Automatic annotation (TrEMBL), chain A:
InterPro entries xrefs: Aminotransferase_I/II_large, Asp_trans, NHTrfase_class1_PyrdxlP-BS, PyrdxlP-dep_Trfase, PyrdxlP-dep_Trfase_major, PyrdxlP-dep_Trfase_small
EC number(s) per entry: 2.6.1.1
SUPFAM superfamilies listed in its UniProt record: PLP-dependent transferases (SSF53383)
Keywords: Aminotransferase, Pyridoxal phosphate, Transferase
Gene Ontology BP terms: amino acid metabolic process
Family matches, as NCBIfam families: PRK09257.1
Protein name from the UniProt record: Aspartate aminotransferase
Domain Aminotransferase class I/classII large: residue ranges: 29-395
Reactions catalysed, as given in the entry: L-aspartate + 2-oxoglutarate = oxaloacetate + L-glutamate
Lineage: superkingdom: Eukaryota
Miscellaneous comment as given in the Swiss-Prot or TrEMBL entry: In eukaryotes there are cytoplasmic, mitochondrial and chloroplastic isozymes.
Single GO molecular function: pyridoxal phosphate binding
Enzyme superclass (EC): transferase
From TrEMBL, chain B:
GO biological process, one term: amino acid metabolic process
Cofactor needs: pyridoxal 5'-phosphate
Entries under NCBIfam families matching the protein: PRK09257.1
Keyword Cell wall biogenesis/degradation assigned: no
Domain named Aminotransferase class I/classII large: residues: 53-418
Family: Belongs to the class-I pyridoxal-phosphate-dependent aminotransferase family.
Source species taxonomy: Eukaryota, Viridiplantae, Streptophyta, Embryophyta, Tracheophyta
Protein keywords: Aminotransferase, Pyridoxal phosphate, Transferase
Subunit structure: Homodimer.
The organism's place on the tree of life at top rank: Eukaryota
SUPFAM superfamilies: PLP-dependent transferases
Presence of the UniProt keyword Transferase in the record: yes
The protein's name in its UniProt record: Aspartate aminotransferase
Length: 404, 425
């Protein structure tokens, strides 16, 4: 008799489940706008040239071994990652005030940071934006924190509910942790302006709220690595403390290699060193030390100025293609006279568009047009191409006019 | 510097920056420096030592006879096939199905009915650590009143893993300091005295840190008693193939339990036996009553992986799949694993002979009785400290020697040093 006979089957992950359903569909016009993985114009996954070059370099180097990394990961990778998000000339780095540890992509960085906070921080509540990536609440809950939300998306404007955000953060207890999407908010694509970020920063510092940035799209949103890191750098520039989780899944196309980093910016070098030592105690009982391959690729690229420059070019190409898809979709809807204001498609930024379609319309588009997206109406622009934009526009037009 | 002043000026010029801002002290001033990991800290200390005579017999990573880390030929070939060829899309939450399928065959047998009947819930895990941690979290969630019985001693990280999963732990007798062997009688007492249906952690082979394994007969008795008591057996198998040189032989304990009908759990690692340490490749499996239950359990394991790392890293899994899926590469791997195991067995013989040659008054037969990467020397922490201070020999303070760090080049020096610090004992 099994000790686990009472166990019920868990529900499909809402995001990954979309791809499962898509794969089972045999219709030739099917379109997968579900999970956020970049696709080329031909609808194919992309491995960056610069990544292939780095891989070849690694495999052709006979001196490379596969020994355990230190618990905190590959040193070069950590240094380069901190510089990437904070800026090469960041005073926090120069003053050795940043503890950086390699983690398993964005998910792993958030989880390690969350567990550290649950162990060492006096405030156990984290505020996450509404809506946010579906995995955020689970990560922080399992890390041992309690999760609350703050207003973020305004369905009426399909933009930022800035007043709501300020009110909710203003009412948070002193010291509460606040999760911020550094750029290209997932799922809405709605980001604060620079001025709004400055107001958020002032409010948070005045209330002693702890910023925890999730940076999953640096360079991928606007095409500029520096512009996409501006929110994080504003907070670091005021001398205060913050957390930043980085992922290389999208901007280097290293999805399955699970490469990321957690940086904790501290007041002093001494504190940063103690913090790093405690991060090790969180990591060791989770997976001992992080995987070698992806971090080696990243370090190889970031350390080599030619490869780095090539990377920025390829990154901008990906970002530009997405921006072009946004324009094309908007034009296609406008030329069809689809009712409603669709300009949010070009106002939103990053991989996703929060279309504003409701669950019924989403289901209709799946059934009649074989178009797959998450039920909240989020579409991955990366899954579109010039060839498929018309099909999507037709589907959206039909969905909106039929229920009109 | 100028840029920093400019930014600070810009921020200060917005009038309300200083308004109500809290005092400029760190949130983390009360964070204490953590103690160094007892195992991984040894290598750090070793690396910092400038002495030309230094020897690292601390962490369990294989070295060749020149003291160099090894990348297996089968691994290099697999990597050549992978490089530049494949995309890096997310694996499913449960990891690479191909890798998991091959891995289950190793533990459960090529022709296992359990595999044919799809009764095993399994996911790719972050090496052995990750497999144990997901299991511990699973145990906490679905058997919240249970505790875990852990052998005394065990790999130190086992304690950390179940503690962070919030599962209470107890130890059971395992190592017998007098004989430097198995305390079988006390072990069986503990098994009998534990409440029915208790959860036990067992090392499938090459017990870490002692190198002391039950005999086949003893395993059969343990399995029988587990049946009587309805205990749950979780096997940590980190050294399959690496212990005796024969993966089938090293899985014997598991096969005995399976023959007796136990529904076991198992953690497998490719860190040592494929030399994939830094790639973090392993597997967690749970035997279920039927396919339906296995599907349910797997889905729940995935629910624990998703908020930890979403999905596991692909690279190491590709290497494993390619090697185990290609008959020639698999043959090569088996040959290379045997080569590593044989070198270690040879060093055990050599170390023991060298110490005995020096006329030690003590018995050193445990060096060759024990199996796997480690030798539990029986030295005290004070003796180990002397080894480090006087001879620049690095090992964990429990007297555990990583035989993988012993070479024909350093075995005499090591024997001499051990004799020096123990001869007065």
């Amino acid at each position: 008799m099994s000790v686990f006979s009472q166990i019920a089957r868990a529900p499909e992950d809402p995001i990954l489940g979309v791809t499962v359903a898509y794969n089972q569909d045999s219709d030739p016009s099917k379109l997968n706008l579900g999970v956020g993985a970049y696709r080329t114009e031909e609808g194919k996954p992309l491995v960056l040239n610069v990544v292939r070059k780095a891989e070849q370099k690694l495999v052709n180097d006979p001196s490379r071994v596969k020994e355990y990394l230190p618990i905190v990961g590959l040193a070069d990778f950590n240094k380069c990652s901190a510089k990437l998000i904070l800026g090469a000339d960041s005073p926090a780095i120069q003053e050795n005030r940043v503890a950086t540890v390699q983690c398993l992509s964005g998910t792993g960085s958030l989880r390690v940071g969350g567990e550290f906070l649950a162990k060492h921080y006096y405030e156990k509540t984290v505020y996450i934006p509404s809506p946010t990536w579906g995995n955020h609440p689970k990560i922080f809950t399992l890390a041992g924190l309690s999760v609350k939300t703050y207003r973020y998306y305004d369905p009426a404007t399909r933009g930022l509910d800035f007043q709501g955000l300020l009110e909710d953060l203003g009412n948070a207890p002193t010291g509460a942790i606040v999760l911020l999407h550094a750029c290209a908010h997932n799922p809405t694509g709605v980001d604060p302006t620079v001025d709004q970020w400055e107001q958020i920063r002032k409010l948070m510092r005045s209330k002693g709220l702890l910023p925890f940035f999730d940076s999953a799209y640096q360079g991928f949103a606007s095409g500029s690595l520096d512009a996409d890191a501006q929110s994080v750098r504003m907070f670091v520039a005021d001398g205060g403390e913050c957390f930043a989780a980085q992922s290389y899944a999208k901007n280097m196309g290293l999805y399955a290699e699970r490469v990321g980093a957690l940086s904790i910016v501290c007041k002093t070098a001494d504190v940063a060193s103690k913090v790093e030592s405690q991060l090790k105690l969180v990591i060791r009982p989770m997976y001992s030390n992080p995987p070698l391959h992806g971090a080696s690729i990243v370090a190889t690229i970031l350390k080599d100025s030619n490869l780095y420059n090539e990377w920025t070019v390829e990154l901008k190409e990906m970002a530009d293609r997405i921006i072009s898809m946004r324009k094309q979709l908007l034009e296609a809807l406008q030329s069809r006279g689809t009712p409603g204001d669709w300009t949010h498609i070009i106002k939103q930024i990053g991989m996703f568009t929060f279309t504003g379609l409701n669950a019924e319309q989403v289901a209709f588009m799946r059934g009649e047009y074989h178009i797959y997206m998450t039920s909240d109406g989020r579409i991955s622009m990366a899954g579109l191409s010039s060839k498929t934009v018309p099909h999507l526009a037709n589907a959206m037009h039909a969905a909106v006019t039929r229920t009109a | 510097m100028a840029a920093r002043i400019a930014i600070t000026t810009r921020i200060k010029s917005s009038s309300s920056f200083l308004l109500g801002s809290r005092s400029m002290s760190s949130w983390w001033g009360n964070v204490n420096p953590a103690p160094k990991d007892p195992i991984l800290g040894v290598t750090e200390a070793f690396l910092a030592d400038p002495s030309p005579d230094k020897v690292n017999v601390g962490v369990g990573a294989y070295r060749d006879d020149n003291g160099k880390p090894v990348v297996l030929d089968c691994v290099r070939e697999a990597e050549r096939r992978v490089a530049g060829n494949l995309n890096m899309e997310y694996l499913p939450m449960g990891g690479s199905n191909k890798m998991v399928d091959e891995t289950l065959k190793l533990a459960y047998g090529e022709d296992s009915d359990l595999i044919k009947d799809k009764r095993i819930a399994a996911i790719q895990a972050l090496s052995g650590t990750g497999a144990c941690r997901i299991f511990a979290d699973f145990q906490k969630r679905f058997s919240p009143d249970s505790q875990i019985y852990i052998p005394a001693p065990t790999w130190s990280n086992h304690h950390n893993i179940w503690r962070d999963a919030d599962v209470p732990q107890r130890t059971f007798h395992y190592y017998h300091p007098e004989t430097k062997g198995l305390d079988f009688a006390s072990l069986m007492d503990d098994v009998k005295n534990a409440p029915n249906g208790s959860f036990f952690l067992l090392h499938a082979c090459a017990h870490n840190p002692t190198g002391v394994d039950p005999t086949v007969e003893q395993w059969k008795e343990i399995s029988y008693q587990f049946k009587v008591k309805g205990h749950f057996a979780f096997f940590d198998m980190a050294y399959q193939g690496f212990a005796s040189g024969d993966p089938e032989r090293d899985a014997k304990s598991i096969r005995i339990f399976l023959e007796d009908g136990h529904l076991i759990g198992c953690s497998q690692s490719y860190a040592k036996n494929m030399g994939l340490y830094g790639q973090r490749v392993g597997c967690l499996s749970l035997v279920c009553e039927d396919e339906k239950q296995a599907v349910a359990v797997k889905s729940q394991l995935q629910q624990l992986a998703r908020p930890m790392y979403s999905n596991p890293p692909v690279h190491g899994a590709l290497i494993v799949s390619i090697i185990l899926g290609d008959p020639d590469l698999k043959k090569l791997w088996l040959k290379e694993v045997k080569g590593m195991a044989d070198r270690i067995i040879g060093m055990r013989t050599s170390l023991r002979e060298n110490i005995e040659k020096l006329g030690s008054p003590l018995s050193w037969e445990h060096i060759t009785n024990q199996i796997g990467m480690f030798c539990y020397s029986g030295m005290t922490p004070e003796q180990v400290d002397r080894l480090t201070k006087e001879f620049h020999i690095y090992m964990t303070r429990n007297g555990r020697i990583s035989m993988a760090g012993v070479t024909s080049g350093n075995v005499e020096y090591l024997a001499k040093a051990i004799h020096e610090v123990t001869k007065a004992a």
